[in-house]
Write a structure and sequence with these properties.
two-stranded antiparallel sheet; 11 helices; single chain; 357 residues; eight-stranded parallel beta barrel; 29% helix; alpha/beta; 14 strands
Length: 357
């Protein structure tokens, strides 16, 4: 019987266990040009006993930044700063992927050094507010991306992936979930386009497919993962036809031979076994846990073959040695969520929403 503590091969890497650290936005990139500091190197190296670490969301270009003090992978300063992180993790025997996250319409001009307006598939404002250095602000109407903007953004993802490998990362995870740019294109409310990137489900998967193909071509499919969250309403997303959209997406990218597919369950857990059956490769799962977090009670999902890898968020915040604690039944610390969203007075700490349970 396979357990969460057995090794598994992901792309070219032999992972020591099947427990992954989920990506959690930290907003602590205080270095030059939105680069991580030595604090990030310590933070991630402390958690190197995970089979796989997926970093906080990292923007592939300037306009892709949605929150204050999130890091990038689009200039030399950022690449150099990330090297100290990857080296620290590798020194502890860990494997680490960078999550590439373009937030699309989820942002605000106050979060850029030079005021810019966030972009998206269509000029459709998201309901709600976001964090800025000036406090909470309403989302703004995004600038609709032109065809040239879309093609440039695809190339920006590929360039950021190459930068990630140059920085010492073992691979990248493309963020296609949680209401950010890729899911905005997949959605039926944020994407009202009538060209080849809008309208039918097959057209709406086009941008995600193009990004995945470009990144896989840039660094190799075996170093490329994709995260999705079907029917996730986070960040004002509606997906009326998700039962058609996501199987079409998997049909399109299955032949590439990606390192893994990372599914975050929220409102559509019934779709998960369908995707699990359809997906040809490694299947990572962040199981649905409304109002709580992934815990020891979810470990049997590996034994039941519902997933190949489980990702944990909140528990990794409070338990850097989480695999050891899960394996031995040691007591688990609970994350102090009162310190999230800037409550610790030191900026914005780890960001465990439903996506990072």
């Amino acid at each position: 019987m396979t357990t969460a503590f057995d090794p598994i091969k992901v792309g070219p890497y032999e992972l020591k266990n099947r427990i992954a650290m989920a990506p959690m936005t930290r907003s602590r990139a205080y270095g030059p040009d939105r680069s991580p500091s030595l604090m990030a190197a310590e933070y991630y190296s402390q958690r190197a006993s995970a089979g796989l670490i997926v970093t906080e969301g990292t923007q592939p270009n300037v306009i892709g930044q949605g929150y204050p003090f999130t890091p990038g992978l689009h200039n030399d300063s950022q690449v150099q700063a990330w090297r100290q992180v990857t080296e620290a993790v590798h020194d502890k025997g860990g494997v680490i992927f960078a999550q590439l996250m373009h937030t699309g319409r989820i942002g605000h001009p106050a979060n850029y050094d030079t005021p810019l307006t966030s972009t998206g598939p269509s000029a459709v404002q998201a309901a709600g507010q976001t964090f800025t250095p000036e406090g909470m602000k309403n989302f703004v109407v995004p600038v609709e991306m032109t065809a040239d903007d879309i093609r440039q953004t695809v190339e920006d993802f590929a360039s950021a992936a190459r930068n990630a490998i140059d920085a010492g990362f073992d691979g990248v995870e493309i963020h296609g979930a949680n209401g950010y740019l890729l899911q905005q294109f997949l959605s039926t409310n944020a994407n009202t386009r009538t060209d080849e990137w809008g309208g039918s489900p097959r057209n709406r998967i086009r941008f995600t497919t193009e990004v995945v193909e470009a990144v896989a071509a840039a660094i190799g499919a075996s170093r490329t993962g994709l995260r999705i969250s079907p029917a996730n309403p986070f960040n004002d997303i509606v997906e009326d036809d998700y039962t058609e959209t996501y199987p079409l997406l998997l049909e399109a990218i299955n032949p590439l031979g990606l390192a893994y597919l990372h599914v975050m369950e929220t409102m559509a857990p019934d779709l998960t076994p369908v995707l699990r059956e359809q997906w040809n490769g490694i299947f990572m799962l962040n199981p649905v846990t409304p109002g709580w977090r992934t815990g020891v009670e979810h470990l049997p999902l590996i034994e039941d073959r519902a997933a190949d890898i489980l990702s944990f968020g909140q528990l990794f915040m409070a338990n850097p040695d989480l695999p050891h604690r899960l394996a031995t039944g040691a007591p688990l610390n609970e994350a102090d969520m009162s310190k999230a969203y800037g409550g610790d007075g030191a900026g914005y700490t780890d960001y465990p929403t439903l996506e990072n349970s």
